Amino acid sequence: MKKIQISPSILSADFSQLGNEIKRLEEGGADMIHVDVMDGHFVPNLTIGPPVIKALKKHCSIKFDVHLMISPVHKYIEVYADAGADIITIHPEATENLGESILKIKSLNKKVGVSLNPDSKLNLITNYLEKIDLVLIMSVNPGFGGQKFMPEVLSKVRQLNEIKSNKNMNFDIEIDGGINFDNCQSAIEAGANILVSGTTIFKSNNGDIKKNINLLKLK
Ligand code: DX5
Ligand code: ZN
């Protein structure tokens, strides 16, 4: 069983203090930083891009888990790799050729993740599982933090985990959206080993990041 890792989403951070916020996450025991990149086209929200990632990277020594909710995504992969992404996660619907985009990320020596929206079927990615480092299962429709967890995606996590153990594969299973202290255990039991959380980590227990990260890990 892989160690449970926490990847806090900075989408719920104070955007006027992002440098300090990621320092708080690192000091609070985050395993990596989940950076939600949105283009207002693939998802109905617009967040940050390469220059901000480059600037933030200087303030942080843990990995940047960059979730690209942008399309078309292929032609932007290199600029996010150069900006400092360590893991680059893309959506299959955002590229014309998922296999080529996966190869592109690997050619830049970055970890490659593929993300499935709640309505996206596992068969979109089953042929690529041997080539990727991470599957990001969305438990909300992407675009905004603070949304309600969709428990129906846990069956997808369980199916994915079954394929992973039957074929003795080693990719990480990350779950993203509405993760809190009440549902994190069922996500872990279903097979997720990386939890993304924004609202719960930044807003619970008066914003005690260290306490909230530990509570998610220990549940
Ligand atoms: C949504 C993002 C998620 C989200 C998580 O499109 O991909 O990472 O910000 O935030 P919470 O934990 O608030 O749902
Ligand atoms: Zn995300």
Describe the protein.
- This protein has helices at residues 18-27, 50-57, 77-83, 98-107, 154-166, 184-190, 199-203, 209-218; strands spanning 5-8, 32-38, 63-69, 87-90, 111-116, 134-138, 172-176, 194-197.
- With 219 residues, the protein is an alpha/beta fold.
- The chain has one domain (5-216): Aldolase class I (TIM Barrel).
- It has an eight-stranded parallel β-sheet with strand order 1-8-7-6-5-4-3-2.
- The two termini are 16 Å apart.
- Zinc ion (ZN) is lined by residues 9, 34, 36, 67, 176, 196.
CATH superfamily: Aldolase class I
> What kind of sheet is the major sheet?
8 strands, parallel
Could you say which small molecules are bound to this protein?
A: D-xylitol-5-phosphate, zinc ion
Mean pLDDT: 97
Report low-confidence residues grouped into runs of 5 or more.
Answer: none
Q: What percentage of the residues does DSSP assign to strands (E)? A: 15-25%
Helix count equals 8
Under the CATH scheme, which class?
Alpha Beta
List the secondary-structure elements in sequence, H or E: EHEHEHEHEEHEHEHH
Instruction: Give the fraction of residues assigned to helices.
Output: 25-40%
Strand order of the largest sheet: 1-8-7-6-5-4-3-2
Radius of gyration: 16 Å
Number of domains: 1
The CATH topology assignment is: TIM Barrel
